[in-house]
Write the structure tokens for this entry.
Amino acid sequence: METETEKKISDTNIALISISVFLVIFIIYYSVMMMLSPGKKYAAIRNEFGIDTTEKSRGSNPIFSDSTYLKLLKEKAFLQSRMIMAESDSIYLTLNLSDSTMNLEISGVSVHQARFSYMEASKIFLKGDENLILSLMTSPFTIAKDRATIKKEPVLVKMAPRDTSEYKPDVVPDTSLTEPVNYILEMTDGTRIYICQEEEDNARERRSQFRFDLNYRMVDAWSCMKSIVRFRIPDYHLYIKIYLPRSDARIIYRAIPKYGQVGLYR
Amino acid sequence: MENFEIKDDITLPVNNNAPEEEKITSESILSTIKASCRKIRSNTKVFSLIKTLSVIFASVFALVLLFYFLLYIAPALKELPGVHVTEITNNVELKGDPSYRKQITQLNRDIQRLSRKYGSFTSGQSYIVINTTDNRFFLYRNKKLVREGFCSSGSYTLLQTEGDRKWIFKTPKGKYWIQGKLTNPVWRKPDWAFVEEGLPIPSKDHNSRYEYGVLGDYALSIGDGYLIHGTIYKRFLGMPVTHGCVRLADDDLEVIFNTLNIGSKVYIF
């Protein structure tokens, strides 16, 4: 009887140890794959734009390490990108990381400007290779999809009354506009722009932001997991996370078209 | 120096007493724990219950840790590898190189040309910007803001009939221009105005289609039947309540009517 119990205990221990070892190995493998993903993205950008970042190529042309030259190149690229967007009649967004501003523009006319107090971004955007940044700035990003805590068009369906007896005058809509505003604009190349409202005045807003963030993290983790179990390096998404006043965040989200364009300057 | 000596004298007895007290208490605690462990072990039922509970607790804790790793730690790991940073040398010799100066001059010229072209998009003439989210308008003359205030824009109501006819009351967004200016405009009620009130739709030129005095003193057309006009419902200014037109207060409307000409740009976002 005692030996049976002992055997049971040792079996359980073996199972627990095996699970733990498997988990540790999986976590290490997962971590390594995650750390490899930015490299895959850099390589893809370099291939797409034909950038040679080797020391050999740099040594042959010192102009590419001159700050004045690079600054002017970036300014030119940003202007070219804005020109492309201005030529369409659509509303577009320009994002200037240098002076912390976001501009809504229509045909070259700035119609709304928002200033952000805080932002986070992928390393590549903050201190990455200038040539990579330059190549990302030359043409505007196009929004592929978005996810938000508010509706883009707050449509209210109303059935027409059958006769005058059923008619009720319009109730003034609720304009308190207190719903929390958080959204993600995902570009066609996978770059993501997260816009979060600055205000965290109450628990409801904090909860909403947490839920929204968690939801997106879960979607992302699921897609990474799917790649990793197939022994493939997961996709890396460049990101910019911006904290804006709620009213500005709402205005920008409602104004920008579903497949609108975004110009970037750093 | 004297102060130090005095301090040492005072602190010494306290330091001597402390380890003794600790020794006694830790030993007693250990012996109590050992005794209770022996008791629990002797009782196999309690022992197995505690063991099961600790396995469950450890599993839940491991699961939470795993989720935390997958959702928060792993994405942060993506940012760990170093990025290739451009080495800025600002070579002094390069600055004096004629080909470098030529390239810089060319770039400056390109930027100026592009800036001028981009700047020319903003009209020097008067134009109006309408923010449909906040229901505000901004009137510009010579690229300077001359007036701002509240307006009313589309309510985003989707009116549906049983016969599957639909109308959505939203203000269009984008670039428009003033196509016509009217004084004392008369509202020619479209079909939805009757449907909305549960009234039968009259013939095209029936008298009941014409309503006087509801659009204010002036109206500016931006095409497709959309107007910038006045209102009798002034308390709703600043709210999204219209059928797609832009409503303004009387004094704002008068200034806008006098400032904008046919062809003036209207930017709605």
Q: What stands out?
A: Chain A touches chain B through 85 residues (CB under 8 Å).
